[in-house]
Every structure is written in C-alpha cells, then in structure tokens.
Amino acid sequence: MSQTIPPILSVLPTRALVDEKFKVLVENLPAGSPVTVHSLHHSEDKDYWEAYAHYISDHKGTVSVAEDLSFGGTYTGIEPMGLLWSMRLVPGSQKGLRLRKMDVHSPMLVNISVYSGHIAEGFREQPPLASALTERWYMAPGVRRIDIREKGVRGTLFIPPGPGPFPGLMDMWGGSGGLMEYRSALLASHGYVSLALQYFSPGELKSAELEFKYFEAAFNIVKDHPQVIPDRVGIFGLSLGAIVTMYLAAESTIIKPRCCVCVSGSHFYPRGENLTIFDQTLIRNFHKVRVDENGYQIWRDIILPIASDLSLKVDVRKITCPMLLVNGLDDQNIATVESAEDITQMMHAAGNDHLLTRVHYPDTGHLIEPPYSPHFRATKYLVDTTKAKVTLLWGGQTKPHSDAQEDSWRKILAFLQQHLYSTSSPKAKM
C-alpha cells in the first residue's frame, strides 16, 4: 500500500471504564483498501490475547469499526466492541486459560493496530500502518479501595467518589475461591459501596453455622459502614456465590438484603451443611459427570434431577426481597435453567413470584462476566478436595454469549438502580 500521508488510527475515548464502548477509526487510507484491525493485550500472567477483523476502506479511505462490516477474523459483521469480546490467546499459547484482572489499580492496556491487507497471523512479524493504545479501567478515578480484615472477614471494600452515603453491595464470586475484585471495583464506579468478599477454603470454617455467621458478618460490615445507607444493601453472587446469596436471603434472621442479583446459580443447598457439600456432591455423583469430545468435564447433571425434598434446597419461598436471576441456556456447569424453573414454581406457590425477575440467554454459558470480557467456553479448574486439575466446559458460543454479557449487565445495573437508589444514581466516568 503506497501513499504519502500515513494512515491515522484513533481510539476514543482512549481511557474508559471496561463497560463503556469505544470507537475505533482509521483514516487516510486509499479508497477500497483491504486492511486488518488487530487488538493485542499482554495479561498480568504474561500471556498474549488478541482479536482481529478484516475491513475494506470506504470511498473516503476510512474504516469505522463501530459502523463497518468485518468480512472475517475473530468476528464478522458490525461489532463495535468485537476487538475486545472476541479476544483469544495467540496461537501457540497454553490452553484453557482465563483472562481476569487482578490489580484493579492499573488499567487493562489494549494496543489497537491496523495492517495492510487481510491477514490472520504473523502480526508481530510485520510493522503496522498505525497503532494506538487504549486504557480499560475497572476502577474509576476517585474510587477508594480498602482492605477488610475484621470480625474474621477477608475482602476488599470499594467506595465510590463523592460525599455519599451510597447503597451497598456484598459481592461474591464462585467456587474457585480467592479474592476477585474487578466486578466490585466496577460496581463502585457506578455508585455502590461494594465488598468483594474473599471465600474461605471449603472446610476451613468447620460448621455450616460458622460459615453462615461469616457471611452475615460480611454483610453487616457493608451495612454499618458510615458511607453506606444501611437499609439499602443488596447481595450480588455468581455461581456458588449466587447459591449463598439465595440461602442468606431465605434463612438469615440477622440480615435483610434490599435486593439480590444471582448470576448462573442454583438453589441446591442441603440445609445445615457447610460448603464442602458441593465437593462431596461432586464426588458422590461423579458418575453423572459427562466428558465431551475434547475431554472437557460437564458438571451440569450433578444436581439433577432437582429435588422435591425441601431439606435439599434453599426454601426460596421465604425470600422477601426482589431477586434477579441471570442464566445462560447453554450453561454446562450448573443446571441453572432447571433450577430457575423450580425457583419460579416455589415462589409462585408462596405468592411471592412478583419479587422474581428472570433473564436467560440462548447459546450463553456459565461465566457471565461484565461486558466486553472475552468468552471462555472451557478453562482449567482445580478441584478443591481432590486437588485434581481438570478442564471444565462452561458453555456458550462467543457472539451470543458476549451479547448476553452486555445485555445482562445493563439489566443488572437497571435492577440495582431501581431497588437501591430511589433517585438517579451518581455514576463515575473516566
């Protein structure tokens, strides 16, 4: 491609929250030129993730990723954010990895480049026509991050900028454990004091009563914070976190959440058991684990059929606050769809189904993340009790799963706004 004026590549805004859209524009190309737009991210684990798409410049020599068709690559069609959600490990990388932001004090840096011609490999071997660096943040300016080590509770509290007080959230991830902060940082960027709660190891707290008190203590840390409106505190859980959310909402006499968000969860929770029950159930029902053609384990059948015995599940009839269930119809890890049907029937029988909002998405898997996060159909997983490393099939197809992440996040924020803010919500922008 010979020309005198070099192409200009712009990404606007150059700095944004991860759930904000950007616009990628290439100008000063010859009219009708085939080009490849490429994104590259070097993760905190030192892995490279990329996406790319093939475009043809218009009569003005311009390519707008937000408005133009991609003819090939990791996504096709008009996809303004495809350079993020279709990211995958570069060829030759270790398989089964998952991209997650660990240090929310720093942005996710994404290098966007444009190359001559329609190419699918060798991006690092040839010079781009132009490049631009964009910053994607989970934590907006002014959000404060505070380590929590009190009353036996471990976690991180994120407080929005401004005088407050604010509504609060207790935010719980799934069974892989550890401390995941990025969703809480993003929730604080939208005006909620959010506690990213660190899970104990299963069996660390020897009884179900101790575990229950741990979650109650964590909720009260949020509720009693001087920056929090005490009667406007909700619970947000994914996977195992969603199961715990329902259990607390139904059974706790100490805490009364204002609302609950449950993503990819179930109400399977035998009364009086501690969290080791999920590993025990896996071991006991291992004959129900299926393996696909790639050797990936499918766990969704472990809790099937859904029990009719109330002692084997959360009695959701006792839930008295609004609850949002977000599920993928291709969840291969938990039988969330069957669970949601049973939850609906139980709440209807109790006359409290008006409190339940359900959203579910076709071709969407278990790991429903904030928008524009890459889709992980299968990743490696360490089983806590046996210490076996397996690859779990989470499910979903990249494009519909990514659409579901964008749509569900919008619905989650609207639900939280409705039930935790009576007036318009302060919302931080980059």
Strand content: 25-35%
**Could you give the order of the helices and strands?**
EEEEEEHEEEEEEHEHEHEHEEEHEEEH
Q: Which term fits the overall shape?
A: globular
- The tally of beta strands, per DSSP, is 21
Average per-residue pLDDT, rounded, comes to 93
> Count of DSSP helices?
7
- Strand order within the widest sheet? 10-11-13-12-14-15-18-19
How would you characterize this protein structure?
The protein has 430 residues and is of the alpha/beta class. The protein has an eight-stranded mixed β-sheet, sandwiched between helices. Strands 2-9-8-4-5-7 form a six-stranded mixed β-sheet. The protein starts with 7 loop residues before the first strand and ends in a 10-residue tail after the last helix. The mean pLDDT is 93.
Secondary-structure blueprint:
Blueprint: E1 8-12, E2 15-17, E3 23-27, E4 34-42, E5 48-56, E6 63-64, H1 82-85, E7 88-89, E8 108-116, E9 130-137, E10 144-150, E11 153-159, E12 166-172, H2 182-189, E13 193-197, H3 208-223, E14 228-238, H4 240-251, E15 260-263, H5 276-284, E16 290-291, E17 297-298, E18 323-328, H6 336-349, E19 356-361, E20 378-382, E21 389-393, H7 398-420
Parallel strand pairs: 2-9, 12-13, 12-14, 14-15, 15-18, 18-19
Antiparallel strand pairs: 1-3, 3-6, 4-5, 4-8, 5-7, 8-9, 10-11, 11-13, 16-17, 20-21
